[in-house]
Amino acid sequence: MSFEQIISVIADFASIVGVLGVVIAFIAVRVAYRQALTVYEEYKVKQKRASLENAVNLARIYEQEILKSLFWIRNVFENSHMSEFIKSNLNIGALKTVRFTLSEMKSISGNENISQLFNTEFLKIDTSFIQLNKSLYANYELSTTKKDTSEMLSVFILEDFMREIYRLLNSLEWFSMNFTKNIADESAVYQSLHQTFISCIRYLYYFIAIKNKTASEKLYTNLIELYNLWNTRLAEKSEEEVAKLKEVNKRAELNGVSIQKEIEHTGEKL
After folding, report:
1. What's the chain look like in SS3?
2. Could you tell me the pTM of the whole model?
């Protein structure tokens, strides 16, 4: 075998080895990709399961702790004139998206002095209702005259009630953060919790908006985000149901006309 032939054989062998190397490398990359894809899919499944478990746990906390405060505060409002005042002056039910700012609140109420009006009405809440339903004030005593004690007790009760409202809002902010930051799956609890959540936030609109005097330094941002998400979804579903109902009624009317014409045609034959 000549030198040139030897060189040619070596070149062919190197070419074959090179092709095999490429094939092996391709197979290795493909296997690695499939393994990575499998690991990623398993990770997504675990994340989804954890998200659902977190949502269930949050729903339990909402039911056992948050709802209790929510219903209590709403009962106080409904037992006084506050409920009607809120519905008349701060009704945000018709809005899909709400900013929860002081300027928005003034616009909705149509009154630049809405905060003063609200405070005036808030101070008229019947504190005896709160006192009868809260053992916290049973042993409240002051070393003053009976009249002063009564007046100071009323102030104390309203101040404490205000603190309770903001404790509830802080709990709702923490609750909402778990969903807005994707720690828990909000869609898993929407159907069971959205009605009381939305109703509660509408009742407490003033207490959120009054804290947000500027858009750049807003409080309760997670609560606001979850409210707007659920409220928009609720509005869209309501619109879909109305559209379906109109379509059903339209078809019923058309069918009614067809049946009537058929009856008339049959009558003519007879």
Report:
1. CCHHHHHHHHHHHHHHHHHHHHHHHHHHHHHHHHHHHHHHHHHHHHHHHHHHHHHHHHHHHHHHHHHHHHHHHHHHHHCCCHHHHHHHHCCCCCCCCCCCCHHHHHHHHCCCCHHHHHHHHHCCCCHHHHHHHCHHHCCCCCCCCHHHHHHHHHHHHHHHHHHHHHHHHHHHHHHHHHHHCCCCCHHHCHHHHHHHHHHHHHHCHHHHHCCCCCCCCCCCHHHHHHHHHHHHHHHHHHHHHHHHHHHHHHHHHHHHHHHHHHHHHHHHHC
2. 0.74
